[in-house]
Structures are given as structure tokens and as C-alpha cells.
Design brief:
The complex is a heterodimer of chains A (173) and B (266). With 173 residues, chain A is mainly alpha-helical. Chain A has one domain (2-172). Chain A contains nine helices and no strands. Chain A has helices at 2-26, 30-52, 57-79, 83-92, 97-110, 113-118, 122-144, 146-150, 156-172. In chain A, helix 2 packs antiparallel against helix 3 (57-79). The termini of chain A are far apart. Chain B has 266 residues and is mainly alpha-helical. Chain B has two domains: 15-121, no CATH class; 128-265, no CATH class. Chain B is built from ten helices and three strands. Chain B has helices spanning 15-31, 36-49, 90-104, 110-121, 128-145, 150-172, 177-198, 204-211, 218-230, 233-261, and strands at residues 52-58, 62-69, 76-82. A three-stranded antiparallel beta sheet of chain B has the order 1-2-3, covered by helices on one side. In chain B, helix 7 (177-198) runs antiparallel to helix 8 (204-211), helix 7 crosses helix 10 and helix 9 runs antiparallel to helix 10 (233-261). The longest helix of chain B is centred in the last third of the chain and has 29 residues, at 233-261. Chain B is elongated, with a radius of gyration of 23 Å. Classes of the chains: A mainly alpha (173), B mainly alpha (266). At the A-B interface, helix 1, helix 4, helix 5, helix 7 and helix 9 of A face helix 2, helix 3, helix 5, helix 8 and helix 9 of B.
């Protein structure tokens, strides 16, 4: 159990760094960088735990990115930024680079007749990795746009305003 | 009730001025990595403040804007503008969002807003050496996350950092951006390939796969899916085409250096 917690902590720390660094690459404002890192770390550890529980790669990535998207609405208020600015670098921590690379490498090998003759499994390799890449990308996009999908045509500021109006009504009573 | 701020509606702006301002804002937002829904919301907020109806057709390569006066149909303009070159800079999204809210609340006047927009356009990105270093760190961390050991991570760090610098220098010389991606990915793979050739790391495959990740056009890729979900099909197609071309260029660069190093070793 302790080693499991340690692994989660390591996962969190690494994903924190990745998200903050991607924030720099994407030009996220300095004040929001730590929030991007926190979101990325949290999301990636959620994915790590779900993977350990055996939810499957696509399922756990979807859950983690939706988690990032929803927490991102709250976090965006904290740092006074639009949610995309922090959820984008946070979701990038789960980008399916390895699968994209594997399908590409297999595709390069496919152009060589002798390698293909030796290993006909190359074609399923390409298909499997390409499908994984695209479904993972789709889940990341769904996670980032979850706020736009659930609160359609509403700005994040209105979501907060809605709460404020509700509160003032209660106080009036 | 606290929402009922004194709104100064005396300020009148001509239709062509507001159209120009919105074109500027929208095209710049889109090039900085905003999805079409965000562009639409920000622009609508600005137009609504001055009593104009607005319709836009964002297509990643450009933006078509139509504004007309709510009270006077003849006071109307339709204009088109090509977007500047795509350079992801999320801080611009924050600044323009704040600006549009201040315009909508009547805090910033139209003349001030124009000056502020010019200021936002000149907003500096992080210094290139800092970005290169951070790119190296992030790719190294991804390498460890994917199961690589310290040696793999070190080589990934070096490869990604050098590649990022190469890309910066080529882009600065105003070469085609796709060419810059090919050369950068080739340089990165050359360095990362050392892991495989020399056989020093634990998982050389991971080193190769994670060191080129900084080139992946994450923002256009994700934005294209968001646009698709929200119904901006033309923008979505243009974005995915752009992202796919960049991905193809990464593959070309990697193929080039893998072939040079010897395909049978990978």
C-alpha cells in the first residue's frame, strides 16, 4: 500500500512538471502556471489509479480528462483566467505520443518488402496503435470542452454569476 | 440586483469601426489558439455593448464578420480578414477575454480598447531559451512517466532541447513552418537515436517516442475536435488539416533520420 501511494506521488510530481512546462510552451500566464501543473498532476494521478483498478486505457483517460475539465472551471476562477488556458496544458500530459510513434514506425517499416515478409503482424500493429491514438485524442478534447458541452453558450463568468444571484436571493428572504 | 451597473450607452461607434475591431480581435484570437466558440463569445460581447447584431464565420485561415445596427438596418458592414500565422499563445486568450468583459461592462471606452488591443498584439512570449529548457524537462518527465530510466530521460532532455532551439532559429529566418518542423524532428531523432544505437538506456523506444512530443500540435488538434462538437465544421476541417500536416512533417523528419541511422536497428 505504501509503495502504491509513493507511486501515485511520483506520478503526480512528474505530471505536475510536464503540465507546467507545456504551459510555458503554450504561453500560459505565469500566475496560472502552478494551477495548470496542479490540474495536470491531479488528472494524471486519477488516470494512474483508474488504470491500476483495471478500467482500461481509453476509459481511464476519458475519466481523467473530464475530471480536469470540471475542476478546471473552479480553478479558472481562482486564477482569473479562461479555463482553456489551464486545462489545455493539463490534458496534454496524457497525449498518446507513444502510440502515435508506434503506428508511424510500423508504417515506415511497411514500405520495406523484406521486413513485411518477415513480420506480417505489422498491419494489425498500425491499425491498433492508430485507433488508440485517435480515441485518446478524442477523449482529451471531450474533457477540455466538457464545460462548453454542459453549460452550452454560457461563459464561465455567468456560471459564477448564477451562483451569486442565487445567494443574494437567499439573503433577501 | 448588484448587476444593474450604470451602463454608459451614450458612446456610439460606426459599424465599419466595430467590424474592424472585431476582425482584428477574432483573427488574432484564432491564431493564438482559441476555439471558434470562444471567438464567437468574445466578439458577441463586444458588439452587444455598442448595440450591434453580429454574425461571424470563423475558418481558421480567416474570419468573416457581419455587423448591423439593432435600430438602423442600413448601418451595416460585412468584412473578411485573413488570420496571422498560427502561434499558440494562451495568455492572449486571457487578456482579450478580460478586455471584452471590460468593454461589455462599459469600463473601457472604444478608443482605449483599440490602444489596448495593439498592446496585447505586442505581448511577448516567454524567452526562447527558457521555452527550450522547459520543453526538455517536460519531454524528460514524459519519458520517465512512460517507463524510461534516468539515462533515457537525460537523452530525451538533450534531444528535445536541441530540437526546440533548431526550430526556433529556422522559424526566425522566416522559412516555411512545415520545413522547420521536419528539420527539428530530424535533429531530435538523430540525438534520441543515439540511445538505440549505443544501447545505453533501458527502453530506447520510449526515448524516441517521447523526445518529439514537443512538436505535436496539441492545441489545433484538440481545438479541431471542440469545433467539430460545437458545429463549426469549416474551422474544424482547416484545423485538423493543419494539425495532420504538422504530424506528417514530424513523421517525415523521423523517417529521414531513422533511415539514415539504419531502419533495421529500430
Amino acid at each position: 500500500m505504501e509503495t502504491f501511494l509513493l507511486e501515485i506521488a511520483l506520478d503526480f510530481a512528474l505530471a505536475f512538471l510536464v503540465a507546467a512546462c507545456w504551459g510555458v510552451l503554450f504561453g500560459t500566464p505565469v500566475k496560472a502556471l502552478y494551477m495548470a501543473g496542479l490540474l495536470g498532476g491531479l488528472g494524471h494521478s486519477v488516470r494512474f489509479v483508474l488504470l491500476e483498478l483495471g478500467l482500461g486505457l481509453v476509459g481511464s483517460t476519458l475519466a481523467a480528462s473530464v475530471f480536469i475539465g470540471l475542476i478546471g472551471i473552479y480553478a479558472a476562477h481562482k486564477v482569473h483566467n479562461p479555463p482553456v488556458v489551464i486545462t489545455m496544458p493539463a490534458c496534454i500530459t496524457m497525449i498518446p505520443g507513444l502510440y502515435a510513434y508506434r503506428s508511424m514506425l510500423a508504417a515506415i517499416k511497411l514500405s520495406d518488402q523484406s521486413i513485411l515478409d518477415k513480420d506480417p503482424n505489422i498491419i494489425p500493429t498500425i491499425a491498433h496503435n492508430a485507433v488508440l491514438t485517435f480515441s485518446l485524442l478524442l477523449t482529451l478534447a471531450v474533457g477540455i470542452s466538457i464545460s462548453a458541452l454542459l453549460f452550452r453558450n454560457k461563459s464561465v463568468r455567468d456560471i459564477r454569476l448564477g451562483k451569486d444571484i442565487f445567494k443574494s436571493k437567499e439573503e433577501n428572504i | 440586483m448588484e448587476k444593474e451597473k450604470e451602463k454608459d450607452t451614450s458612446e456610439t461607434v460606426k459599424a465599419n469601426e466595430i467590424a474592424d475591431f472585431i476582425l482584428d480581435t477574432g483573427a488574432f484570437l484564432m491564431a493564438s489558439g482559441a476555439h471558434s466558440g470562444r471567438v464567437w463569445r468574445n466578439c458577441k460581447r463586444i458588439a452587444g455593448r455598442y448595440g450591434y447584431h453580429l454574425n461571424i464565420n470563423p475558418t481558421f485561415t480567416g474570419i468573416l464578420v457581419s455587423v448591423w445596427d439593432k435600430n438602423d438596418d442600413s448601418n451595416a458592414v460585412t468584412r473578411y480578414k485573413t488570420s496571422p500565422q498560427n502561434l499558440v499563445h494562451l495568455e492572449v486568450l486571457t487578456l482579450i477575454s478580460h478586455l471584452s468583459w471590460r468593454i461589455a461592462d462599459g469600463i473601457t471606452s472604444f478608443a482605449d480598447a483599440r490602444v489596448e488591443l495593439e498592446g496585447i498584439k505586442k505581448q511577448k512570449h516567454y524567452p526562447f531559451w527558457f521555452v527550450a529548457f522547459m520543453v526538455g524537462v517536460s519531454c524528460a518527465c514524459l519519458c520517465v512517466l512512460a517507463g524510461g530510466n534516468v539515462v533515457d530521460a537525460g537523452i530525451t532532455f538533450l534531444a528535445a532541447m536541441v530540437g526546440s532551439l533548431v526550430k526556433y532559429y529556422i522559424t526566425r529566418k522566416n522559412f516555411n513552418q512545415f520545413l522547420a518542423v521536419i528539420v527539428a524532428s530530424c535533429a531530435t531523432t538523430m540525438i534520441a537515436g543515439a540511445d538505440t544505437i549505443l544501447g545505453i538506456g533501458k527502453l530506447p523506444e520510449i526515448t524516441l517516442a517521447t523526445s518529439v512530443l514537443y512538436l505535436i500540435p496539441g492545441v489545433p488538434l484538440i481545438n479541431s475536435v471542440i469545433d467539430l462538437l460545437e458545429g463549426y465544421f469549416s474551422a474544424s476541417i482547416a484545423r485538423s488539416l493543419y494539425a495532420a500536416s504538422v504530424l506528417l512533417c514530424i513523421a517525415v523528419g523521423m523517417t529521414l533520420s531513422i533511415t539514415l541511422l539504419g531502419i533495421s536497428k529500430f
